[in-house]
Amino acid sequence: MINTLYLPELREMLETQDTAGLEEFCTALHPARTAEFMEGLSAVEAWEVLRHTELRNRIEIFSYLEDARQVEIIEAAPPEETSALIADMPADDRVDLLNQVTPETFGQVMPLMPAEERRDIMRLSAYPEGTAGSLMTTDMAMLPESLTVRAAVEEIGRQSEEHETIYYIYIVDDDKHLRGLVSARQLVTHLNKPNMPLADLVERDLVTVVDTDDQETVAAKVADYDFLAIPVVDAERRLVGIITHDDVIDVLREEAEEDAYLAGGMEPLAESYLDTPWWELAWKRGLWLTVLFLAAILTVTTLKNYDEILDRVPWLVFFLPLVISCGGNSGTQSTTLAIRALTNNDITPRDWWKVLRREIGTGLLLGGFLAVIGYGVARLLTNEPTAYEALVVPITLVGVVLCGSVIGSQLPLLFRRLGLDEALMSSPFLSGIIDIIGIVIYMTVSLSILKELAP
């Protein structure tokens, strides 16, 4: 929802060229609030407002605008002005921004930036999407370990204006091989020992990621160790960048959204729900809906094979939804537990046997419990089945709950083993599989018991 509180005043200041008023607007509030109040402006108007504040504050406000909004402004504003803003943005943010603008805008802006920034952009852009290299920033504090504490503090003071974060200071050799790190806190607490060699403070046992690692691996490591940033090295252990915690939060949010879409049986959306055209929503939903519909046809086909016994024993139809829903529900529970355990690295595909044993025990226990209830329901709700015939329901419940638990827990492990996203094994897909198996089990048990009663 667009905040229009300051729009009339802003437009009036722009029309009257009220420089003082625009400068005050850009500095009086937190940059996030300033960006929020600018949402109703056109891209040209927004850039005109941003021009009335210093570059550092301009970048701060710009960073709080939506990605699509940033692209609009960069494409609408003069490239000789926006190039300065892009050049001073954090390295990872400016690469993400330039990857979204039109080729024409990219071609206009790039030649206007300093050579070092151009090389950095091209280097970071070369990393495939979803890798550590595509997430990292090259804005990091680096020092040789030959310095003293005093010299290190002085050098960090000179570097601090250029870097996104200085929580950690990375110690490298002449060829940028990572040798360790020192935290800013360590330097501050040792200021009373200014001549202490920096080498005495260096932490050597570092957790790192390789620039080609998947972003989910990076997020898992940062979450496990509660880092503010994690160093990224190449195959020769040269420090090439760092990934900060805010970028990891974005990855976790992105992965959670993707898993939520897949769990619902649809393609993830590239934009927000309201920004996605209705025909694109229909396509993304319809594609998977069609696949699920075809899977449901298999359920109908399977059920049709048993129409003879259903005509002969009509009461079996009453309990069919109950039986297959229990199987689907137990499978969904097992799948959820397995996917969550895989995501948290509590289990790996190699643990399939341990998971199988646990789910067999759990499935038998839950199936037995539901079987007792199911038998009572079968006897109380209808007078048709005899005490012996009603055994169809509890026996089937044990079978389908057991199958649902086993299949629901093993399929995510299989998908991970095959290199696929385990979230693809979503509830709609799993329910379709369990429905077919549940029908087969139900009818097989029914035929076996009813055969015993045949004259």
Summarize the structure.
The protein is mostly helical and 455 residues long.
Instruction: State the strand order across the main sheet.
Output: 1-2-3
> How far apart, in Å, are the first and last alpha carbons?
73 Å
**Taking all residues together, what is the mean pLDDT?**
84
Just give the CATH class of the largest domain: Mainly Alpha
Low-confidence stretches: none
Number of domains: 3
CATH level-3 fold name of the largest domain: Tetracycline Repressor, domain 2
Summarize the amount of helix as a percent range: 55-70%
Shape: elongated
Describe what you observe in this structure.
- The protein has 455 residues and is mainly α.
- It has 3 domains: 7-126, Alpha Horseshoe (MgtE N-terminal fold); 141-244, CBS-domain; 305-453, SLC41 divalent cation transporters, integral membrane domain (Tetracycline Repressor, domain 2, Orthogonal Bundle).
- It has helices at 7-15, 19-28, 31-37, 43-50, 55-63, 67-76, 79-88, 91-98, 103-109, 115-125, 132-135, 149-159, 184-189, 215-225, 245-263, 278-304, 307-312, 315-343, 352-381, 392-417, 427-453; strands spanning 141-143, 168-172, 178-183, 209-210, 229-233, 239-244.
- Strand 5 (229-233) and strand 6 (239-244) form a beta hairpin.
- Helix 5 (55-63) packs across helix 7 and helix 18 runs antiparallel to helix 21 (427-453).
